[in-house]
Amino acid sequence: MKKPDPRIQRTRENIMNGFMRLIKQKEFSDITIADITQEAKINRSTFYYHFVDKYDLIDMIQKEVLTKEIFNEVALQEAIDEQTIIKSLQAIMSSQINLSLQCQHALEEFKAKMDYEIKQRLTETLKALLDKEHGMKEEHYLLATFWSWGIYGVAMACVEGKETLHTAVNRLTHIILR
Fold this sequence. Notes:
By secondary structure, this protein is mostly helical. About 75% of the residues lie in helices and about 0% in strands.
């Protein structure tokens, strides 16, 4: 497999970082490609070499920056246990707080896609843990999907103050590990 050119990676990161700086200052709808290229100190054709438009840029930021390593600690678990649930809840809650702080001017544009991406990443992580613990089985994907959406919903209840982390862990542990 061919290694990516470091100059291309640096340019992509520069564009993404420039966009993230802009999003702290302006509403998403007010950000233009010209703003992004000026902030990243690149020309317009360079932007279009890497991204189709600013929506493509948002998608890439979500996949490569905001959710890429969100469940790394969860993936290191040997089995699905109370620690897995705690780490999953904490990762989701932390990502939501970071999203609110970093992208307050583009929260609407990011939120729905981020929610989906987080659930997908947690599903993949939980399925891998189930496969590691019990061998590969077809039903693991469905079970991991069910659990990830439930864990996500409970984490959001914690973020909104409707549930405490301690109570959430106890309830989820009872449901998932019984």
